[in-house]
TrEMBL record:
This is Dehydrogenase. It holds the Pfam family GFO_IDH_MocA. It comes from Algoriphagus sanaruensis. InterPro entries: Gfo/Idh/MocA-like_OxRdtase_N, Gfo/Idh/MocA_oxidoreduct, GFO_IDH_MocA-like_dom, NAD(P)-bd_dom_sf. Residues 131-280 form the GFO/IDH/MocA-like oxidoreductase domain. Gene3D superfamilies: Dihydrodipicolinate Reductase, domain 2, NAD(P)-binding Rossmann-like Domain. Residues 6-121 form the Gfo/Idh/MocA-like oxidoreductase N-terminal domain. GO terms for molecular function: nucleotide binding.
Amino acid sequence: MSQTLKAAIVGTGFIGPAHLEALRRIPNVEVVALVEVNQELANEKAKALGIPRAYLFDDMLKQDDIDVVHICTPNFLHFSQAKAVLLAGKHVVCEKPLAVKIHEAEELVKLAAETGLVNAVHFNLRYYPMVRQMKVMREKGELGEVYSIMGSYLQDWLFLNTDYNWRLEPDKSGDSRAIADIGSHLLDITEYVTGLKITEVMADFSTVHKTRLKPLKPIETYSGKMLTMDDYQEVPINTEDHATVLLRFDNGSKGSITVSQVNAGRKNRLNIEIAGSKSNFEFNSERPNELWIGKREKANEQLMKDPSLFHREASSLISFPGGHNEGFPDTSKQMFKEVYAAVATGKQPENATFPTFADGLRELIIGERIVESNKKQAWVKI
Ligand code: SOE
């Protein structure tokens, strides 16, 4: 008999409802509770989202029937909330970044290991089936030796100086913005697919809008486009809109990434090109069902997502036949399938297939070294 696992979601900005929708698409999981900053908002959002119970955070933790808590709040809350969830004996899925400071993430990794509870960080972009296919192809030798890596992650939702969000405020978001928010996904995928470790970074940041016009009422991620021009206040901006980082890897190869949140027309585009001794892979998250495979000795190839054309280890992330496109919402669904399989066993697997708190810590360390490199304008070791 299959047991239904019960989940709570904390936070209802852009990503909380995405977690909810993904959870509703996997079997034997029920989202029973929603948490917000005040009871009135929790009630209102729970009703709108069709979630039966609404709580403040501490009251939710006291509910014995809740097995898993998804932390979908602004970054500065991740550490204290993830810690409290683990101490309450519940499994936790935390949004990235795992924390804003390395020592906090270290504490969470240690605590999670001590409790044995399932811990995951929502690096969901790993779960595009094509990303896993690239990893498996590389493991099977189809890429060859990695020569170089070139990545970019471009968005335009902060393009105008009137675009505003809590991510622009370091006390809520941390000292880095573009690198922490989207560079972290790209760097995670880079190491995940290639199996290489970044050993040194050299970064150069720019803040295109040195000041922005902050709306006098709160708004949610991506929703700023719907505002009008009234009621703004000019505020200084101290985090990067754009960053370029040179990378050195542990096999001696080199690479670079560019991330930007002010590139008009690039809505949410992660692009990675990995040049190997046998092939060249190029993946673009705005066309996630395709992979370009560059060849020297014959015509280049275009692989379309199709379980019958994929390696078995990657086809497990596909739910629909070829030609039936899957995209961003499916990544979280596929990730949660793996996380909840672990939850059903009651403990973190030794070799988790999903991104763990240890992966969250790794991205914080790389991110902090990148910030340091930009400050010093020098190479920094990881
Ligand atoms: C906002 O920039 C954001 O929502 C990121 O926080 C996500 O991780 C990314 O998936 C899309 O953009």
